[in-house]
Amino acid sequence: MTESSPSSRGATPFAATAVADGGDRPAPPGAAFGGQTWREVAHLLTNLPMALAGFVYVTTWLLTGTALSVTVIGLPLLAAGMAGARLLGRWERARARVLLRVRVEEPSPLRLRARGGFFTWLWTHLRDPVGWRTALYAFMRLPWGVATFAVALVSLLVLWPVLPWIARGLTNADRAMVRGLLSPSDELERRIAELESDRGIVVDTAAADLRRIERDLHDGAQARLVAIAMDLGLAKEKLLDDPDTAARMVDEAHGEVKLALQELRDLARGIHPAILTDRGLGPALSALAARCTVPVTVTVELPTRPAPAIEGIAYFTVSELLQNISKHSKARSASLELWRSEQRLLLQVRDDGCGGARLDGGSGLAGLAERLGAVDGLFVLDSPVGGPTAVTAELPWRDRTEG
After folding, report:
1. 300-313: per-residue pLDDT in tens?
2. Measured in whole angstroms, how far is the alpha carbon of residue 121 from the centre of its chain?
3. Residue (of 94, 127, 96, 135) closest to 110 by Cα position
4. pTM of the entire structure?
5. What is the CATH topology of the domain spanning 275-402?
6. What DSSP letter does each residue of 333-386 carry, written as one string?
7. 195-271: in CATH 1.20.5
8. In the chain, at which end, N or C, are there fewer CB atoms within 10 A of the end residue's CB?
9. What angle do CA 77, 79, 82 make, to 5 degrees?
10. Could you tell me the residue ranges of all domains in the chain?
11. Angle, to 10 degrees, between the axis of helix 74-95 and the axis of helix 118-126?
């Protein structure tokens, strides 16, 4: 975050998760046999048994399943065989990581619908691209495994001086095949897996919010209204016998009604504040800042309003951050900035407090990061001990016409 200050307007925070190019490339071969050369030779010599095992499995599975496809067990057999193909691919990726130093991510697991039946399971497995690419890999590997085993063995006996270069050339072809056929299909597949995980976070968050609303209603306004009803019932009984007491009880009930109404307003504001719907993020965030115990300077630069869902997420993110400032920061002042950069909505909340905030510190920041991640957003925290603290959040910009 310290490298992407939003004050530059247009700088977008990002998570540096990419591995530097060449991070999995071994050093160039040399005349002296190093550890990598011996690992490459071991990979070439194990190509033959692994290729034989893979070819036998895939050939037996496909021929048997295809031959029996006219019966009721043929297609289920083909679908079940995909699990073995995936396992074969996992072994090959592990061998490549250990011996060739190739960093290959594991493909996303198959995702089945919670209420899907047998035919859903069958169709999902039959169209599994990971299994089919592994089958193709196994077919290609048999002639290649025989050839590389023979060349490596002859080189060990006859071509010893040039063995490092031979091993490197052959294993570079292995690396290309592993990356091309055994790596995840493309970024879309990885993104689908991430979105499915995020969907679970959204569902859990929504369920937690519903439980909170139910608890607040039950313990707050509902309990107060029940007490008011009982008090009014007693006042009604005393109305003729003791009108002064009845009047006092009605007056107390009137005060309780006001408190119940305030609780309901607070609850409604916690669900979705009316000012946000009617006037947008600028006035809504200014109202939030006015309730903070620390003076907050608000700067909002938005040419138009984003979609209601994005406005709601931004609003509750700021609300949580300002509550943390009030409770934990010991700050004397704070600032809130909100602006649009291309197709992203960015906000930053700063304070001059004691710092030391962490995502695992129990302040709710981890939950905010999960919520933002679930909608393709980012959350960046910079809070050294002693302060100051700066939190930058980024959300996708969606026009109101997009919903």
Report:
1. 888 888 888 888 88
2. 25
3. 127
4. 0.45
5. Heat Shock Protein 90 (3.30.565)
6. -EEEEEEEETTEEEEEEEE-S-----TTSSSSHHHHHHHHHHTT-EEEEE--TT
7. yes
8. C
9. 110
10. 35-185, 195-271, 275-402
11. 50
